[in-house]
């Protein structure tokens, strides 16, 4: 079935240009072009779309308002802003409802790839409800202690942007959100950044303040509620930090390129973000998964995930991070960290580092987590396991 | 009369004369005594008076100096010591011109400055003084004359105005900075808007071009088949299969679509490029680099380019109607300042309409700009259908920093700068008529005649 994509812009000529330039996709996509947010909503109400690409500033309803309404109407829709505005206030409004932000003029292939990639990621997840659930998430909740510390820091005029960046780097939710903002062109940046400290300095103190204190892009998670459902936020954070640090050390030891080292660290930190998403939205399923994993180890977990979700927690996390436009290497490392062999890669990558680090970080618990030996063999690095094990202990 | 009698009479006369003399002496001594007492009192009074005037002199904030007709300093009070950095002892007897910047003297003496000073008539001039450390400073010099007997003395009252001057300079500098800041703010805002106005056509011109690139590949493919068909016809080897394939290719590339769309893509791309060209041209005209002097300009054209560069500020709220009098004469203006003033009025009009439209967001308001010549003046009217200005604020609307807009939306400088620009720098007028809920009209008038314009 053709994917349905809706394009919204108050400029007729611009829509015509997009329609012609995307003509090559006519066999895969059914494209609709409308001139206002009102028309877009009317159409979406009667016939849902898979993705929307909208201008930001339009007479009447602007792009941010349109996306806000669409999130409620149709949470699973892929939401991309294509805007020529650089007005910060305007951009801030779109930070929550938009998955990605592209600047005009945008290379048509770039736009095409962003849409194709979002659709490809969706293949990771077969359950429509789960797709809607993840696509509808505008942000993730943070560890309350970190969140409160950050708010305090932002009210202190002596605090440096670097210190703020380091604070963001400690939190799963904050890290993934700021990286979304700088990797997408929300603030005209659109660069491949994997380090939250760099991200913070690119955004600048004023933008961060605005985002956190007035837009509220971060929130506190209800730790006790999750705790009562048998999910330990603290344990997730501790495990994530550990995997990030081991993954980085492994990548360095393998003389990987700088970008791979950075991807490894970030993907290591975010690899279990799917669990957080599940804990927040489908706690009973996560509980089942944890029990299955206790009983049957990795195989048990996989089986249970397939049964309950039709995907893995890696897939869940990867879908969100992919929608948010995080670098591809990070997204695939998160998606396949339990099953790296599923990808045809034959080279050391962030996926390799995260997979190995995750197994090593779980080493003390005899839960049947093991390396994907075939995969490591294919890469010709199986003999490195002992060295890595030593690295992890350091 | 006997001798005894005569002797006795003489004695009597002498005694009485002596008595008289003694009385006189006593009287005179007494007089002398009294005179002496009076003198002492007078001396005391004098000393007191002297002390009073010198302490008044010394307590005076202004320097008070007297000079004789040769310009030599005769007295020099404490304030003068402080102002010039020179003690009274050193100063007395010196030529006062040593305490003035040499340019001021023009080779003459202080006496020359005093021409026109007569009796109680005082003359005040602002001149540059010189301290003993050679630093030059501005001072107000009040000159008057007095006569001590035949001796004519000039009295110089000197006020050091360097601090006041400094403050004035600071104020001018601050005004300049404020004007600059507002200009920068406006430019920053404009730049973002202009970027958008350029980015949009750039997007569709490049989309259309990449479409044309793809379309050409398709057409090339079709041409290839055409060619093969023609060859086959000529060689008499045409098969139904070949015709079918050629037809299928034509279908696949959707040749009818290309047939319709290619001319349109070209037409719209050219239109996009025209838009880019127009805004870049307007930008150049608007910014008017380096024109700090009045020159005769076409005000209609200035309005058109200002409307063009500010399009992004108003197009979401208003339609723009221009009713420009083609017979408008060239008018002497500072083009940059006039553009800025018109821009400020346009932005203001757009904000007024935006405020008005908040609830009923789908309909656009209207901004109308009219020009016409009235007598020896050019009139520019900027009318909006916005929220209007209430009477209690219309009096303050041109005050610096007066704003009704929320924080972050303007510094309250726009209209103040339009005012100072039109009134102070162009000798024109600016005023408004407004009706709450209906809209506002700002009217600018500018003198057409160069001669009636003070160069700002």
Give a verbal description of the structure:
The complex is a heterodimer of chains A (394) and B (456). With 394 residues, chain A is α/β, with parallel strands linked by helices. Chain A folds into 3 domains: 3-122, Response regulator (Rossmann fold); 144-215, no CATH class; 223-393, Orthogonal Bundle (Hypothetical protein af1432), CATH 1.10.3210.10. Helix content of chain A is 60%, strand content 8%. In chain A, helix 2 (37-46) runs parallel beside helix 3 (63-73) and helix 13 (233-253) runs antiparallel to helix 14 (258-270). Chain A is globular and about 60 Å long. In chain A, 50% of the residues are buried. The model of chain A has no long low-confidence stretch (mean pLDDT 88). With 456 residues, chain B is an alpha+beta fold. Chain B contains 13 helices and 12 strands. Chain B has helices spanning 3-59, 78-84, 88-91, 102-105, 110-113, 162-234, 240-252, 255-287, 299-309, 311-314, 335-357, 391-394, 414-426, and strands at 63-67, 73-76, 123-130, 136-148, 151-160, 295-297, 318-324, 331-333, 365-374, 377-384, 429-435, 439-447. In chain B, the strands form 3 sheets. In chain B, strands 2-1-5-4-3 form a 5-stranded antiparallel sheet. Chain B has a 5-stranded mixed sheet with strand order 7-9-10-12-11, covered by helices on one side. In chain B, a hairpin with a 5-residue loop joins strand 1 (63-67) and strand 2. The longest helix of chain B is centred in the middle third of the chain and has 73 residues, at 162-234. Chain B is rod-shaped. Classes of the chains: A alpha/beta (394), B alpha+beta (456). Chain A binds chain B through residues 11, 13-14, 16-18, 20-21, 23-24, 38, 57-61, 82, 84-87, 89, 103-108, and chain B through 192, 195-196, 199-208, 210-211, 214, 257, 261, 264-265, 268, 271-272, 315-317, 361-362, 364, 408.
